[in-house]
Amino acid sequence: MSELYPLLLLPEFHERVWGTRDLSLIYPHKTARQGGEFDKPIGEAWLTGDQCRIANGSLAGQTLDDVTKKFGCELLGEACADHSRFPLLLKFLFPKEKLSVQVHPDDDGAKAIGQPCGKTECWYVLAAEPGAQVALGLKPGVTRSQVEAAINDVQLEPLMNWLDVNPGELIYVDAGTVHAIGPGAILLETQQNSDTTYRLYDYGRGRELHIEQGLAATKERTHAGKVKRTDSGNGTQTLVASPCFVIEKTVVREPKEFASGKSVQVLVALDGCGVIEIDGAKPVTLAKGECVIVPASLGKFRVRPQWAVELYCARLPEGKMAQPVTSAN
Q: How distant, in Å, are the alpha carbons of 120, 168, 195 from that of 260?
């Protein structure tokens, strides 16, 4: 019998200059235990980072990277081409100030510098204050020389395409898209497991920039934008289906059975609480803000809600996928 079972992961909290000390919307109990606020500004809570540790069962204390290297295809499934590393990085973002303007290379660009993959990502908007915005791409007709001049003059923002964001929206950001996140929203980011980031612009905050590499990685046209969700049936909505990941959202109000398929699944509780059950293993409770990884080899599993649980489910596509249809408004 396999040693694998649904894996509850402990998040890793990362300090960022643009972050906040108040994470109570996602982690009310954790924040309360620490006296109301975190000591340092937290910008990111990594849910499936390589160093995130297993919290339950016989593998407790081991890192996700340890478990991935040990179980390979049994954990990740046939849909994953590289069985040596976990393919998807999910994280909560808590921007209190603007993030730097960045661009990420695609798979070919990343492999040219010795990295395993590029970085296509998406953001699910959990909460947003009125006027919260993100930037996707440059305005039509903006040239490379104009971008370089604007960076030097600390005036890049007017050249970018800024969009208002609202709770429940999914924003797709494929590799090669110049982008930025403004303050006032809480996002759940899903991305290829890469941290190759070129910082083009940082509002004069003095951090290192990577202008030459960033401009080389920038694509004039990308598929970035807001994705129109589709109804997948049985109470499930597809938020995005892309070559790098498929994300669905479902509200479970009665016990429901799911199939693992050919890909590992990442389940994040957006609200409420539920119990993940498989035959022959201890049940795993999944509460708001927590993350469970369901290995591909487990086949079917059940979710039994405690009243109700809203689940965000991320996995790899099981065949060739087209880029999603997006809009810029």
A: 23, 25, 27
